[in-house]
Design goal:
heterodimer, A: 405 residues, alpha+beta, f41 fragment of flagellin, N-terminal domain, five-stranded antiparallel β-sheet, B: 664 residues, six-stranded antiparallel β-sheet, 10 helices, 41% helix
Chain lengths: 405, 664
């Protein structure tokens, strides 16, 4: 076959160029560390890389979100721990008030100290988070959660919103709790009904809190002693207190015996006198502030010397306060448990998020990163090829018949 | 006739041989040169009694070594190769543009959503809100930058088409001129004007690089050259002219026109120009550039519109309903809180009415369905016909306007009545990436909160709980003015509403829905049932007690409310585009993937074609190319022939001298 001289040059140059461009590409791959330099190198991988990089960025975002959720919940937990300790402390004080040797001085000393705890509780309930937002105001983060209208009457200014934080693609976790839930929406009494002694009682009858039962019919009742040994049970209007009916009349009273009122059971002990009244009402929501304030008022009531009737009234108030405090404590502990569970979940999510992040890294690396060993081997091979092409081209173009004529 | 004559004929032939060889050597590197060789033959012998005596040699012709088939093969391969090279060079620009992981759309998109996440985590924080606005600005800038790049490529195509057309015209003129010269040269001589022929064939080859032409050789030696679907470019010594001028459909693109005698210009259909450099440029613009720019525009429009739709359902720090987060207005669109993007509509320059009132208004009524294609709308007496250009699907034919297509476009009739034959080009997403902007600068105007708030009343004795409410687009028509209270009646197991102004829909867990009139109480059929009225949805769980109440009220002071921000965040991964099959990111990945595949295909084909060109060139060169070694041998051969002929003449002279010496 004839070969034209220009073909020899064209072929020589073409093969050198081909080798050079392959080498430059390998060099670029080595310099950037990426196997896929442009989408054309591997269209499928490039598209996948973009998708994965979003997933990876999102995963990192979720990691950041878990951190802010943890910090918000951690802060809330600290506050709730303070509330728990405060309530336990108050409970001890309430128990110590139940002491026959107490006199007006010690009781009012106790009241003063509890007044301080009351203010402290209000302070805790108005805690702010790291961004200066009120922790227990729901969505109304810049509104002070609780304001005192009168002692014991504390208004909640927030709402029932829970701030949610996205911690996985599908999970939004609550990073706050409404103050209404924590401090105010607490059932009083035993949860179904609440008992109280009449304010004007002169006997020493003590009423128990009764035991919670679903049998309670939800109406308001009044136990009225007609003598030291007999009593009536009246159904009364929950608003006016007017007698509606008298389901039980002239029952015999024995101290410590169980009395059934509207399906609920309770006991009265001691020596009530004729005209003494005890009320049984359905449980309602009572805020911790009201509970605490009611007890403080009860402590401030008796004057020296303390009469047996006043002592009985105090004892009844202690019973009420204890049951309401326990309810409050239950609530706070429930919320704390829920906070703890959420923090645990976040920890688990964070750990799995880190694993997922590693997997994304791995897949991304598989898709786009360069196998250096292979690339460097390639480079060496291409170098040899290029040198061979250059040298052989030189050799061939040296051959010319004109050299000999 | 004598020995001397024979010697002279030999000398002459050797001299011609030497000059031809010299010509070959000097033109070894001339493009389009075909090596020449001489054909020599013995002269007519002299008849004598002794027989026929030779009378020397004669050079019959100097012919070029030319094979029409081989040359044609090179040209065919070359025209396809030029097409692919032009296409490849253009698409590589897009390929490189989207290649950089830090320069594409993805990082900007991710940073923007990081900003939204930041607001979701700290809804009341002004720095977080500022970072969301700043990252939105960065995203918009990225859209603009990428679009600008597309526009630059588009402008580049326009000027390259113009350049290519003027080159074609120049080649055609030169070929016509050479035709004339060749006809004259051939008429006056029996030989062929080899070098003129080479020049003309080379021009044909160059012309083929720009556009595929076919050549018909005429009996007088001239070439008739035609292109595409038979439009004559050169006839004899006359050349026709192509023009590069703005398309009638879309004046922003330069198309190719054909000027016939008389100066009338008709546009050449795109599919006739499917080869050569010019074909490559036009095909790239049609197939790759338009689709890529439209795809980017669709992401911009889709993102802006879907984010806006959600943002408008939220409530900002001032307690107002959210406005637009992004501007998506196209040219000619109307503004307003409920605006939808409008498509770019280009009227054909021959239309009867070129004012805006003469064109239909086209809106993207459903961005989730919008495609990346362009459309043409044509009017005839029978009605309007809309054709999707990507696959030539007729969306509707001979119909009256307005129409809403399955592609999410709503087309309203022009204000002024059109005339028969009016046409419009509709580019729904072309300017999407150009026109997108950030609509808010005030951090307080980010609507991170939801506009409604639900509460279970403090005095409730039951365990009923109400979920945080959400709103849909129906809420915007009648935002909540005051608190709506739901009161539970244990006897009837129903909720009554006050005030009750709109019907209520209850959705159960099995998906069944029942609608109750405004005055009707709502049954509490199952725990967790969804209750919807006035665009507000919520659910109630637990067992409420008799007379327990729940309130739904406007959200006031909800600065820490991030419900709407969370919904905005959710849009990042939601499939909102391309018929609800792609998220913003995956729509961009698809664009990158498809550009990658196209580039790869073109590059691979271009490489194969280049080797085809090389092969056919080798075959052609193997026949017609100059080999210097061969020429060196020829030099020696003709030199020796010359010397031998000279020697022979010397001998003849000596013989003659001998004869002369006889008389001395």
């Amino acid at each position: 076959m004839r070969i034209s001289t220009s073909t020899i040059y064209d072929l020589g140059v073409a093969s050198i160029q081909q080798q050079t461009s392959a080498m430059v590409k390998t060099q670029q791959q080595i310099a950037t560390g990426r196997r896929v330099l442009t989408p054309a190198d591997d269209p499928v991988a490039s598209a996948r890389v973009l998708e994965l990089s979003q997933s990876k960025a999102l995963n990192q975002q979720y990691d950041v979100n878990t951190d802010s959720a943890t910090s918000a919940l951690g802060l809330e937990d600290v506050v709730l721990e303070g509330v728990t300790n405060l309530l336990l402390d108050v409970r001890t004080t309430v128990l110590s008030a139940n002491n026959p040797l107490m006199n007006n001085t010690t009781l009012s000393g106790m009241a003063t100290s509890l007044r301080g705890r009351y203010e402290e509780l209000l302070g805790l309930a108005n805690s702010a988070d790291s961004n200066g937002q009120y922790m227990f105001s729901g969505f109304k983060g810049s509104t002070q959660s609780f304001t005192q209208i009168a002692p014991g009457n504390v208004a909640y200014n927030g709402d029932q919103g829970q701030r949610l934080i996205q911690i996985t693609p599908t999970r939004q976790i609550a990073a706050s709790d409404s103050g209404l839930d924590v401090f105010q929406q607490i059932r009083n009494g035993n949860g179904t009904f609440v008992t109280a002694a009449g304010a004007t009682n002169t006997g020493t009858g003590l009423i128990s809190e009764g035991s919670a039962t679903t049998a309670f019919d939800g109406k308001s009742y009044q136990i009225v002693f007609t003598s030291a040994t007999t009593y009536d049970i009246n159904q009364v209007s929950p608003t006016t207190g007017a007698v509606i009916a008298t389901p039980v009349s002239g029952a015999t009273y024995t101290s410590g015996n169980s009395i059934t009122v509207g399906g609920g059971e309770l006991t009265i002990t001691g020596a009530p006198v004729s005209g003494d009244k005890f009320t049984v009402k359905p449980s309602s929501n009572e805020s911790l502030f009201t509970t605490l304030n009611n007890f403080i008022i009860a402590l401030e009531k008796p004057t020296d010397p303390i009469s047996p009737a006043a002592k009985a009234a105090l004892m009844n108030d202690i019973t009420t306060a204890l049951s309401n405090l326990d309810n409050g404590l239950d609530r706070v502990l429930t919320v704390r448990a829920s906070v703890g569970t959420r923090m645990q979940e976040i920890d688990a999510v964070k750990a799995s998020g880190e694993d997922i992040g590693l997997q994304y890294e791995q897949t991304l690396s598989d898709l786009q990163d360069l196998d250096y060993a292979k690339a460097i081997t390639d480079l060496t091979r291409q170098q040899v090829g290029l040198e061979a092409a250059q040298k052989s081209f030189l050799k061939i173009q040296e051959l010319s018949l004109f050299n000999f004529i | 006739m004598g020995t001397l004559e024979i010697g002279i004929s030999g000398l002459r032939a050797a001299q011609i041989g030497l000059s031809t060889t010299g010509h070959n050597i000097t033109n070894a590197a001339t493009p389009g040169y075909h090596r020449q060789e001489i054909t020599q033959s013995a002269n007519t012998p002299l008849s004598t009694g002794a027989g026929f005596i030779g009378t020397g040699v004669n050079v019959e012709a100097i012919k070029r070594v030319y094979d029409e088939f081989l040359d044609r093969q090179v040209q065919t391969a070359q025209t396809q190769s030029s097409y692919l090279d032009a296409y490849s060079a253009q698409i590589s620009q897009i390929n490189n543009m989207v290649a950089d992981p830090s320069a594409g759309l993805s990082p900007a998109l991710q940073e923007f959503f990081q900003g939204v996440h930041d607001v979701a985590a700290n809804p009341a924080s002004v720095p977080s809100r500022q970072s969301m606005i700043s990252s939105a600005e960065a995203l918009v800038t990225r859209f603009h930058t990428l679009n600008q790049r597309f526009e630059e490529i588009r402008d580049g195509i326009n000027s390259q088409v113009t350049a290519s057309v003027s080159m074609i015209n120049s080649y055609a003129r030169q070929i016509a001129e050479l035709n004339g010269r060749i006809v004259i040269a051939q008429a006056g001589s029996s030989g062929s004007p080899n070098d003129l022929l080479d020049q003309r064939d080379n021009l044909i080859a160059e012309l083929n690089k720009e556009i595929n032409v076919s050549v018909v050789k005429q009996s007088d030696g001239s070439y008739n050259v035609s292109m595409g679907k038979g439009q004559a470019l050169v006839v004899g010594n006359l050349a026709y002219t192509l023009t590069a001028q703005p398309s009638l459909d879309d004046p922003s693109r330069i198309d190719v026109g054909y000027q016939s005698w008389g100066g009338q210009v008709s546009f050449i259909r795109q599919d006739s120009l499917d080869s050569g450099n010019l074909g490559g440029l036009l095909a790239f613009r049609n197939e790759a550039l338009d689709a890529a720019q439209n795809a980017l525009g669709r992401i911009a429009i889709g993102l802006a519109q879907t984010m806006n739709d959600q943002h408008r359902l939220g409530q900002d720090l001032n307690g107002d309903l959210g406005g637009s987060l992004f501007n998506v207005m196209g040219p000619g669109g109307t503004s307003g809180a409920f605006s939808v993007p409008s498509a770019k509509v280009v009227a054909n320059v021959n239309n009867s009415d070129l004012t805006p009132a003469g064109s239909p208004a086209v809106t993207l009524s459903d961005v989730s369905k919008v495609t990346t294609s362009d459309y043409t709308l044509a009017y005839s007496a029978a009605g309007y016909t809309l054709t999707r250009l990507s696959d030539k699907t007729v969306m509707f034919a001979n119909a009256a306007l307005p129409q809403t297509t399955t592609d999410g476009l709503t087309i309203a009739a022009p204000t002024n009545a059109p005339a028969n034959g009016d046409r419009w080009l509709i580019q729904p997403t072309r300017n999407g990436a150009r026109d997108v902007g950030v609509a808010i600068q005030d951090t307080a105007k980010i609507a991170a909160a939801a506009p409604v708030l639900t509460n279970a009343t403090f005095a409730n004795t039951g365990t009923g709980k109400i979920s945080a409410g959400s709103v849909n687009v129906n809420y915007l028509a009648a935002p909540l003015a005051g608190t709506v209270t739901l009161t539970y009646n244990a006897t009837t197991n129903q909720f009554s509403r006050s005030p009750a102004t709109s019907p209520v829909t209850v959705t159960l867990s099995n998906g069944s829905t029942t609608t109750y009139l405004a005055w009707m109480p709502v049954p509490y059929s199952e725990e967790g049932q969804t209750i919807t009225f006035g665009g507000i949805s919520f659910s109630i769980t637990g067992q409420p007690a008799n007379n327990d109440t729940f309130t739904i009220s406007p959200n006031t002071n909800g600065v820490a409310d991030n419900r709407n921000a969370l919904l905005l965040v959710g849009l990042q991964t939601k499939n909102t585009l391309a018929g609800s099959t792609a998220s913003y990111q995956s729509a961009f990945s698809q664009l990158v993937g498809s550009i990658g595949v196209q580039t790869r295909d073109i590059n691979v084909t271009a490489q194969a074609q280049a080797s085809l060109v090389a092969q056919s060139q080798q075959a052609q060169q193997s026949l017609s190319g100059v080999n210097l070694d061969e020429e060196a041998a020829n030099l020696l051969r003709y030199q020796q022939a010359y010397q031998a002929s000279g020697k022979m003449m010397q001998i003849a002279s000596t013989l003659f001298d001998t004869l002369l010496g006889l008389g001395q």
